[in-house]
Amino acid sequence: MTELLVRTERVEHARNFKTEVRGLMDVEHLVDRASIHRNMQHSHIHTILLTLFNELSSQFPREKFDVALFKNAIFSVSDKDSVAPRLHHKLQSYSGTDFFDVNQTWIITYAALDGLKQSHISIATLEEPTNLGLEMEEARIVVLILSPSFEKHTKSPAEISRTFGTLLTRETLRQAICDAADDDQIRECLKESAKQLSLQMSININEKPIEDENEKGFCPYYPCRGVIRDFKRRWTTYQSDYLDGIKDRRAISKVISTAVFLIFTILPTSIAYGMLNEKNTNGAISVQKVILGQWIGSLIFGIFGGQQLLILSTTAPLSIYIAVIYQIAEFNNWPFFQMYTAVGIYAMAILILAAIFQLASLMKFTTRSTEEIFSLFISVTLVIKVIMAVIKVYIHGYLGCIYGDRGVSCDPAEPLLFILLVLGTTWLSLTIASFRKSPYLSRWKRDLVSDYALPIAVLVFAFISYFAFKDVNKEQFQIFPISHDVHWVDFYNLPAEAHLPALGLAVPLATLFFMDQLLVTNTVDNKDNKLKKGSAHHWDLLIVGLLNIALSLFGLPWMHGALPSAFLHLKALSDVEDRLHNGYLKTVIVHVRETRLATLIAHLIMIPIYFFAIPHITVFIPTSIFNGVFLFMAFSSLTGNELWERILLVMTEQRAYPPTHYIRQVPQRIVHRFTFIEVIQLAILLAVGFAQYHYVEMAFPLVIAIFIPFRHFILPLIIRKQFLEVIDGKH
């Protein structure tokens, strides 16, 4: 006979641990005697809950646990329906504004049973994300709460479930519970999280939060105020910047794998920009100089910088400025390095003044779109550079042979091998990186393999290139004596008439540093990345300015925060969680280990590489593999870029659109119109960044700066402000 199923849902407010004393009391009374079952392998909610019930029954033999009453109280459909049992009560976190309405990684179910004398809690962690049924399709944590039926309301199972449900809304706690080595560690995590919430949760009166006393009232402005506040804020967590990287086995493993990953991303980048600078300056700034400046500058910033997740590097726009300086110096017969150092000192003096007078605060007007356009520009630039490299090798090694331009290095197999190594390195690294989503091996083993995806791919194809295609020509970078890499630049001997042009060049260069450094910092500090230690915009500008003055004085290339290295560094140190909603899977960052150790270790390893390994690297690893690394970096950095996701929507069937917040709140045509405008801005950046003349390319930072007032004053005339706030609000 057909039956009717009645379902009722309601929204329950999270418990405020600061004002509701019951929260801490529930944790104190229940956690110590909780029944905990780690790494359960059952895949059926009926079996899991019965296992937890039986464990409670065994742990508390004096209590009367009636299995029949339990089944009737927990399951709304008879337990005879073992295929898909339904629960009377199911507590999960819900967000009407988040991408995922219901968080399916954890579930709490509860019941009141006759015969019990006290409340009990049982916790199970599942070995893998498991599909337990409707809106429980990726569960990792299952909690069962049982209470006496005669308890007062504040001690009812519903109220206790609200306590532990509030705790489990914290992604870091869920991750810690799943990674715990023993039951006591889970108990300590729950207690510590409850204590933190009791101190952190804001007090609400009439639904309006009370302001922090430290943020109330007038705070006078004075020079260096931002720098001092950044320093004080970051100093309080400075010790943890090191300890967080060694506090447990998983952290140590992540730091080591991230350090190795950074070597295999930063070193190819340094070599590529070194080759570009070498070409632009006729060897004055070589590959070795770039590598030397990379490890010196990054070690200094790694120790003294504010945002420890930033990766400093020389960049393509900086190479353009260096080329312009070289051309001007050669045209006027001025010593190049003296001119280079003078421009660097003037530009960094402007940058330091910007830090002193808190000009970084202007970046609060940037929105997500500006950062995403800049990030996508970097990714597209990497792809274009790879395509240009392939075309260059194809013309040199194949077309040149066909049309009779045969030289010593003419080899038709060279472009074919080049393409094979580029695509092979990219494919293998992306495939191994996605291995964590496969069903093979255990979870920590999959994560371990994925963490080393890029090093494995580079080494595999380096061996293939060296041993299987040893006789095929391969592009290599030139080696210079390292004795020429560092020298004091007597910039004070620069002719007097050269100082005014140097100052003129310094202004756009300082603008480039200002915009790029802060855009990269904002990308890393994005609230979606779950960082806790705060940013240090003004302090980092000061450190970058002082650092580049030192680099200028010794003829080393300039550097600032760079994408995608910084974002990939953050991802490598993070724990991620797959969220499922309406059949759409998305990976989100749960926890980031905010530590300095990975970047410091990576650049310490680069010291012996610089002194001993560079001649061997150019033989063993051809530039084609480096180009494969660039493609990997470009594709990996697209994850989470909403501009890229909206571009893909244009080619996506409408019924397959993901249920993002802007899809639900903004008309589709408005979303596509906004995306089209962003694509035009991206095209403008690409046109300027790849202009034929270096003087046009120097306008790159000014174009980015213009996008900010365009977003606030022009775009609202095209798209309604309420829609802009949804698609492109501040974050």
TrEMBL record:
Name one matching Pfam family: HCO3_cotransp
Localization: Cell membrane
Molecular function terms in GO for this entry? solute:inorganic anion antiporter activity
Q: Which GO terms describe its cellular component?
A: basolateral plasma membrane
The lineage's top-level taxon is Eukaryota
Annotated ranges, domain Bicarbonate transporter-like transmembrane: 223-396, 409-730
Question: Looking at the keywords, is Transport present?
Answer: yes
Look up and give the membrane topology term.
Multi-pass membrane protein
Indicate the principal place this protein occupies in or around the cell: membrane
The UniProt keyword set, sorted, is: Cell membrane, Ion transport, Membrane, Transmembrane, Transmembrane helix, Transport
Check the record and name the InterPro entries matching this protein.
Answer: HCO3_transpt-like_TM_dom, HCO3_transpt_euk, PTrfase/Anion_transptr
Q: Which residues cross the membrane?
A: 255-273, 285-304, 340-361, 373-395, 415-436, 448-469, 498-520, 541-560, 609-635, 674-693, 699-719
Its GO biological process annotations read: monoatomic anion transport; monoatomic ion homeostasis
Question: Which family, according to the similarity comment?
Answer: Belongs to the anion exchanger (TC 2.A.31) family.
**Record's PANTHER family?**
ANION EXCHANGE PROTEIN, ANION TRANSPORTER ABTS-2
Its protein name is Bicarbonate transporter-like transmembrane domain-containing protein
What lineage does UniProt assign to this protein's organism?
Answer: Eukaryota, Metazoa, Ecdysozoa, Nematoda, Chromadorea
